[in-house]
Write a structure and sequence with these properties.
This protein is 30% helix and 24% strand. By secondary structure, the chain is of the alpha/beta class. The chain folds into 2 domains: 328 residues, ANL, N-terminal domain (Rossmann fold, 3-Layer(aba) Sandwich); 99 residues, GMP Synthetase, Chain A, domain 3, CATH 3.30.300. Helix 6 crosses helix 7. Bound molecules: adenosine-5'-diphosphate and zinc ion (ZN). The site of zinc ion (ZN) has 6 residues, from loops.
């Protein structure tokens, strides 16, 4: 199942790739030491100089960088080049607190375009393909990230941005869009709206979608593929590293290839900081080795995933990461049990007559954590039959209990009562935070 690739490095022998990584790492460490006071201070404090980094193994001698460092140096303290060389700014969407600002040189935009072009090609894109970008344009990296990739590939960018879902569908149909790019929750929303408008997916030319920026399950993938009549691909990234395109899925759909020639991944134990062997789950850490304006060293993403270097049938040799389960910040601790919203999503998908929309409400009553799961039912569910409702609630509560080991109150809600998202979905309301 050899696939087209955008950049020959995607299929290069691992030894060649690692030689390239080593040279680039050495260069970047000098670059940050000389140009970013925070890095110079950190490295001096750790007793490591740029000359000490000669091999990939030496990477683990360098100190970590945390999101807090980027907040402390807000807005431009981590920039490694003068502003005259910066041509674009972006900011994180601020899902988990104060926003951070990142910058790109012209060279950085080329890297970004190259990485997202790889994702487009892996999803079947070619020069001339029409790339319908429904990620938000603006400071969020989703929109412009895929836009740069489309143009790099020589494809046609359709910069629709997020929102106005009926118009999205009109454009999908009239313009003959080939690949849809947005968050998986927005893809679901677009798919549902398509059905409501009575448009059959076969009326669209769409063949694939590239969906990321938030965690989504395999069940969500099947749902979206059915609603839109396409193959749905995952894409991963974060503003701090470059935006979407840090890793992308090939047609094998078993993990995402990391653009290792630009970003070196590591998996560490989030508690001890120790590097973990391939295959073990832990926190993803990235080191940028080609970025000029905003090169982060050993950046703690707080995303939990595994890495694998098993040969991929697509022919790419780039290491693969698993779908991240969610970030440690999203992990709920309910009565001492660790739960990711995506685990609850998997349980809900296995229950018939539910829709992919849900909301977790966590609270503390007395000294005890409580979890209520609001589950939106599909239109064919009979709310008038009280026994059915009770039975369904019990069924879901039992699955949650047996799969995740926590008890939850299940509240079934009518179709379309949980707010739809045009960007990243809000899955959790944690009222406990109000008391902290
Ligand atoms: P913010 O931090 O404000 O949400 P970003 O857009 O930079 O802004 O978010 C990046 C984060 O989004 C990642 O660290 C990860 O937690 C999540 N994310 C991005 N892509 C995916 C994906 N394909 N699967 C799961 N989570 C993802
Ligand atoms: Zn592959």
């Amino acid at each position: 199942m050899k696939q087209n690739v955008w950049n020959p490095i995607e299929t290069a022998p691992v030894a060649e790739l690692q030689a390239l990584q080593t040279a680039r790492l050495i260069h970047t460490v000098h670059h940050v030491y000389e140009n970013v006071p925070c890095y110079r201070a950190r490295m001096d404090a750790a007793g490591v100089g740029p000359g000490d980094i000669r091999t990939l193994e030496d990477l683990s001698r360098l100190p970590f960088t945390y999101k807090q460092d980027l907040r402390d140096t807000y807005p431009y303290g981590m920039f490694a080049v003068p502003m005259e060389e910066v041509v674009e700014l972006h900011a994180s969407s601020g899902t988990t607190g104060k926003q951070i600002v990142v910058g790109y040189t012209r060279g950085d935009l080329e890297v970004w375009g190259d990485t997202t072009a790889r994702a487009l090609v892996a999803a079947g894109g070619t020069p001339g393909s029409k790339i319908h970008v429904s990620y938000g344009y603006g400071l969020f990296t989703g929109g412009l990230g895929l836009d740069h990739g489309a143009k790099t590939l020589g494809a046609v960018a359709i910069p629709v941005s997020a929102g106005n879902t009926q118009r999205q569908i009109q454009i999908l149909r009239d313009f003959g869009s080939d690949i849809l790019c947005c968050t998986p929750s927005y893809a679901t929303y677009i798919g549902e709206t398509l059905a409501e408008m009575g448009v059959d997916p076969s009326e669209l030319k769409l063949s694939a979608g590239i969906f990321g920026a938030e965690p989504w399950t395999e069940d969500a993938r099947h749902k979206i593929e059915g609603l839109l009549g396409i193959k749905a691909y995952d894409i991963y990234g974060l503003t701090e590293i470059i935006g979407p395109g840090v890793a992308y899925e090939c047609s094998c759909q078993q993990g995402m290839h990391i653009c290792e020639d630009h970003f070196i991944p590591e998996i560490i134990d989030p508690d001890t900081g120790e590097t973990l062997p391939l295959g073990q789950a832990g926190e993803l850490v990235f080191t940028c080795i080609t970025k000029e304006a905003f090169p982060l060293i050993r950046y703690r993403t707080r995303d939990i995933a595994t890495l694998s270097r098993e040969a991929c049938p697509c022919g790419r040799t780039l290491i693969k990461m698993s779908k991240p389960r969610g970030r440690t910040d999203d992990m709920l601790i309910i009565r001492g049990v660790n739960v990711f919203p995506s685990q609850i999503e998997s349980v809900l998908f296995q229950t018939g007559q539910t829709s992919p929309h849900y909301l977790l409400v966590v609270d503390r009553v007395g000294n005890v954590d409580t979890l209520e799961i609001l589950v939106e039912m599909s239109p064919d569910f009979e709310f008038d039959a009280v026994r059915l409702v009770e039975q369904k609630q019990r069924e879901i509560a039992e699955s949650v209990q047996s799969t995740l080991g926590i008890s939850a109150k299940i509240s079934l809600v009518s179709p379309k009562t949980i707010q739809r998202s045009e960007g990243k979905a809000t899955r959790v309301i944690d009222k406990r935070r109000l008391y902290e």
